[in-house]
Amino acid sequence: TDKSIAPYKSREMNGECFLNDFYDTHDFWHLFASFGLMLVTLLCVQISKPCRDCYLRYCTKQDDNMRRMTHLLKRRQTEINAKALGISVVPDDEEDGEKVQDVTPVNGGEQTAGEEEDEKVKRS
Questions:
Q1: CA-CA distance, 71 to 94, in Å (whole number)?
Q2: What is the pTM of this model?
Q3: Whole-angstrom Cα distance, residue 102 to residue 109?
Q4: Which helix (H) or strand (E) holds 101?
Q5: How far apart are CA 62 and CA 43, in angstroms?
């Protein structure tokens, strides 16, 4: 646009209006360009999404990973609890978790002062 031209000359250079004698070709250019930008944006969004099969495969893989992590966390918690109770735990290969193999105290069967008092209370 040449801003040095007088307004009356600029109006003479304008194209013919089409719709309701209000919109000219440049207005339609803006309208079609906006629709084109919208379609390109929708295309980019659609392309960036994975296909349904890929998404389902991804979800299944995530579920398997989550199950594995939950199993490992349960196993670790069982080991911590067993250590706190003074018993040894042998890991089980099944999904159930862990089985207690040996319930003998880790300290070799020696009783602590607190355990001796507990047995005296039980006997009486």
A1: 10
A2: 0.37
A3: 12
A4: strand 98-102
A5: 27
